[in-house]
Amino acid sequence: MSPGKHSVSQSRWVLTNFFFLTLYFLVLGQIKAEKKLKFAVMVFRHGDRSPTYTYPKDKYQEDSWPDGFGQLTELLAMPLKNCPRYNQLQIETYTSKEFRSLLEPYKDLINSLPNITGYSIKEMQEGVRWWLLYDALQCEQIHNYPLPVWATDDVLNKLSQLADIGMATFFGVYKHHEKSRLQGGVLMGSIIKNISNAARNASSNLKLIMYSGHDTTIASLQMALNVSNGKIPPYAACHIFELYRGDQG
């Protein structure tokens, strides 16, 4: 990414955070007097972006986007190794009865996708491909790029449902609790630790922690909390955890 593009990305990131802080503290002004907010944690998804990837036959490849693919993703990427146990769970997920039963209504669409997208038949059996495909088409549609003729409203609707299933396979569908421990459980543990520290140390100057993440960040946290609605979290989706101190301490 060039310095100019990096500057634009940073400016957008700052504006997004400013919006959330402004909205958050406006809401705080309405809190009842008998309770005093001592500490808060926010986890939110970033704003609008270009696709992180797209399907091989998409005519809108990276050079079609002014700032390239996934501009915010590049700023927030963490070069960590994948967890071997989680990788094994994903392999087991894609061969599980639970996963196969979810795919049954979409078999015809899935079988037609390799020819029109450029993905291999094997690749189209992986949930992540449906999410990446729908994400690319959705970003293109939002930014007024003409979609391919095969991307009808019916196909987009089914791809949206497949994308939700694909996202769900990351954190659930099969061995949900173990996946949650390895994914959203890590973030949940950090949130609990920070809130516990704030409760024990009333004099601390630290009042707010903000995590800027991705749709997968929000989804993994929702699954760990068992509050997921099965949908991909939209742009700017946010969870707020608050610690109050009442008159009784």
UniProtKB/TrEMBL annotation:
The keyword ATP-binding does not apply. InterPro entries: Acid_Pase_AS, His_Pase_clade-2, His_PPase_superfam, Histidine_acid_phosphatase. The chain crosses the membrane at residues 12-29. GO terms for cellular component: lysosome. One of its GO terms (biological process) is lysosome organization. Pfam families: His_Phos_2. It catalyses: a phosphate monoester + H2O = an alcohol + phosphate. Gene3D superfamilies: Phosphoglycerate mutase-like. It comes from the Eukaryota. PROSITE patterns: HIS_ACID_PHOSPHAT_1 (PS00616), HIS_ACID_PHOSPHAT_2 (PS00778). PANTHER family: ACID PHOSPHATASE-RELATED, PROSTATIC ACID PHOSPHATASE. Belongs to the histidine acid phosphatase family. This is acid phosphatase. It comes from Engystomops pustulosus.
